[in-house]
Amino acid sequence: MKRPLILAACFALLAGCSGSGHDAAHTGHAGHELAPTTPASASAPAPAPASASGAAPAVGDYNLADVMFLQMAMANHNRGIELVHLADKRPIREDLRNLTAAIRLTQEQELDQMKKWLTEWSQSTDVNPDPNAHAHHGGMPVTDAAALADLAKLPDSEFEKQFIALLTAHQHNAVEFALTEGKDGASAPVKAFADKVVKSRSGQIQLLLKYQQ
């Protein structure tokens, strides 16, 4: 298959597959150890009292959960773009290279949309340095910068295997907090976006797991 056709197939997958969502993200993880993650936090409006149901209170057409999700997702996307850039000059298989190129372009486009929402709401796009900002949901899972540094030091003979493992874990993290947005968010467009992230990243994980076989 020619490269443009392969890329088109990748873009179709990244745009939001009709797969099995969160279950797909976990299928095949037996024997697969996720790469290191570290808790972080996201910037958000001043905390408001939770409702009786425990959900974040709505502010207009959005709530605190929407803001926190977008900020976490932006941090995740930026780190993911850094990660796939590491493969640019490495001798990885061609279909994997096509997938990483599609991931990078998709996440760049999604970053623009997330920034637009936060700007419209007059919210910061940066993560909150306060380590307690996300204590109620265990912090933000984000691929550790040190893990990327270690990956960059690997010889070509070891790079692809570890790259796939780290990218798989990274996309799994995106699924986890996108699912949280689906439960706690108030903004219909952002919740729809989160659902798209779950399906898209779950499909990517399935492809990446096949590369490990």
UniProtKB/TrEMBL annotation:
Residues 35-55 have a biased composition (Low complexity). The keyword Signal applies. Keywords: Signal. Residues 66-208 form the DUF305 domain. Residues 1-23 form the signal peptide. It comes from the Bacteria. Residues 23-32 have a biased composition (Basic and acidic residues). Pfam families: DUF305. Coiled coil: none annotated. Residues 22-55 are annotated as: Disordered. This is Uncharacterized conserved protein, DUF305 family.
